[in-house]
Amino acid sequence: MDFDLQWLLIGLPVAFALGWMASRFDLKQLKREREDAPRAYFKGLNLLLNEQQDKAIDAFIEAVQYDPDTTELHFALGNLFRRRGEFERAVRVHQHLLGRSDLKAGDHERAQRALAQDFMKAGLFDRAEAAWQALEGTAFDGEARLALLSLYERSRDWQRAAAVARQLEAAGTGAFGSRIAHYECELAEAADAAGQPFDAEAALQRAREASPQAARPVLLAGHRLLKAGQPARALDTWQALLASQPASFLLVAADYARAALAAGQGAEAHAALTQALARLPALELVQALEALEDPADPARLPRLLAHLQQQPTLSGAQRLLAVPASQWTEEAWPLLQSAVKRGAAPLQRYRCAACGFEAQHYYWQCPGCLTWDSYPTQRLDAL
């Protein structure tokens, strides 16, 4: 017993000493690794600021190897991969973060958002949709719904786009009434094309409720009435638009004249268009008036010349050229010249033979590629 006790008394201090030495070694090793991690991190940051992304990525990978649990390094590395277009590597980094059970809730949401951005940038819209949907109800809820709205618009899924837009508006993110009206009009046009008039009418009603001042539902409603053989009702619908939004009315000016002729209300429509032309000089209104008149009406040419004087455009000049020259007055030719000159001026450009840079003025040295004597001296009509 004395012998055993003696060795025990000797062994305990030895074991304690060895354990203390081992712990000191581990502490030094751990301290060295912790010192190496920030050193690699700051090295990567410096390289990133110097726009040396390849070397910065290598430095960040080294830092992650020293300290795999550092989430910020993973986020930085994933963002670098995404910026460089290496979406597969970015996805792997962010999926690795999401797979960690010790990740905080806030960091988990950040990783989910980063993953959704990876899929968006990579053009993987179906996977991006699922990733954004996983963020609903989180701190990134608004951003996720806006991204989903963009995805649904891109895929022309108007029903889901309208639903998301209504959710965003209800949450106070912004006003989406105008966009909802467009979505519903798209649904109405699709329903009409599929032979579902009742669904089309319901969609138009929702569009008007979403944005009472929107012009598109009114335009579409008039077109549907005209197509259904109700030109008088189409005229009434568009008449309100002519009074409230004459600029939008220009899109249906020709159809308005056609509906007026079909409804036997040419004189009333002519008077309304004449008043509108006095407020808004537009070639569309001039053409609509001509559609209601006899080709030999003497008022046609003076009205066209007055329009050319106010707006000397190539379209107006083309309209004048359709009139027989024998009917022209003295002021017709100068107005035609003025319109052609004004319309052709922006098209006349010098084009660099080296890089294709176009300019209205001649340059001895190209402002685009800095090449000397690269501009031909002859102008081109750049269309």
From TrEMBL:
Cross-referenced SUPFAM superfamilies: TPR-like
One Pfam family linked to the record: TPR_16
Family: Belongs to the LapB family.
Matches recorded under InterPro entries: LapB (IPR030865), Rubredoxin_2 (IPR041166), TPR-like_helical_dom_sf (IPR011990)
Cytoplasmic side: 24-383
GO CC, one annotated term: cytoplasmic side of plasma membrane
Membrane topology note: Single-pass membrane protein
Entry keyword set: Cell inner membrane, Cell membrane, Iron, Membrane, Metal-binding, Repeat, TPR repeat, Transmembrane, Transmembrane helix
LapB rubredoxin metal binding domain span: 350-374
Annotated transmembrane regions: 6-25
GO molecular function terms listed in the Swiss-Prot or TrEMBL record: iron ion binding
Subcellular locations according to the entry: Cell inner membrane
GO process annotations (BP): lipopolysaccharide metabolic process; regulation of lipid biosynthetic process
Protein name stated in the entry: Lipopolysaccharide assembly protein B
Main location group: membrane
Binding site residues for Fe cation: 352, 355, 366, 369
Organism listed in the record: Rubrivivax rivuli
Gene3D superfamilies given in the database record: Tetratricopeptide repeat domain
Role noted for this protein: Modulates cellular lipopolysaccharide (LPS) levels by regulating LpxC, which is involved in lipid A biosynthesis. May act by modulating the proteolytic activity of FtsH towards LpxC. May also coordinate assembly of proteins involved in LPS synthesis at the plasma membrane.
